[in-house]
């Protein structure tokens, strides 16, 4: 994993794998936000696979796929995710950029 901490509340990462969830939880994150649409690339794990693995280690998981410009609906869903996750959040997508954009747009 290549996690880039933005501040005490948020970090971003390229694609994570279901087997990364234990390490993510042990690093202190309380939830994840996936900004990547399912089936964007062959072989990428589905959000459902990620969410099931996250749940097993006590992480909350939210799927807010971004494939172009950010929309008001995506920003509202991200604000809701932030409100439901009590602690640090790890956002991810292919490179981490879209996840970071979601966070930046809600500051």
UniProtKB/TrEMBL annotation:
Q: Which GO terms describe its molecular function?
A: hydrolase activity
Instruction: Name the domain of life.
Output: Bacteria
Q: Where is the signal peptide?
A: none
Specify one Pfam family. Answer: BLH_phosphatase
All copies of the Beta-lactamase hydrolase-like protein phosphatase-like domain together span 4-104
Which NCBIfam families is this protein grouped with? TIGR01244 family sulfur transferase
- Its name, as the record gives it, is TIGR01244 family phosphatase
Species annotation: Devosia oryzisoli
């Amino acid at each position: 994993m290549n996690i880039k901490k933005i501040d005490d509340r948020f970090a971003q990462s390229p694609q994570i794998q279901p087997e990364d969830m234990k390490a993510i939880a042990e690093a202190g994150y309380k939830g994840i936000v996936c900004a990547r649409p399912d089936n964007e690339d062959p072989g990428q794990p589905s959000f459902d696979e990620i969410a099931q693995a996250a749940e097993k280690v006590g992480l909350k998981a939210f799927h807010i796929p971004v494939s172009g410009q950010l929309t008001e609906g995506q920003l509202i869903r991200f604000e809701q995710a932030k409100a439901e996750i009590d602690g640090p959040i790890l956002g991810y997508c292919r490179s981490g950029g879209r996840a970071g954009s979601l966070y930046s747009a809600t500051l």
